[in-house]
Amino acid sequence: MSEMGTRRLVLTPWTAELAKDFVALLARPELVRFGYGRPPTPSMALGRLSEIVLEWETNGFGAYAIRERESGVIGGYAGVHVPQTIPELAPLLEVGVRVVAEWWGKALAFEAMVPIMNFAFEVLNAPGVAGVFLPANTAARNMNQALGMSFHSQVVRPGTGMLLEVHRATRDDWQDVKHRHGLEG
Ligand SMILES: CC(C)(COP(=O)(O)OP(=O)(O)OC[C@H]1O[C@@H](n2cnc3c(N)ncnc32)[C@H](O)[C@@H]1OP(=O)(O)O)[C@@H](O)C(=O)NCCC(=O)NCCS
Question: What would the CATH number be for the domain defined by 4-180?
Answer without folding.
Answer: 3.40.630.30
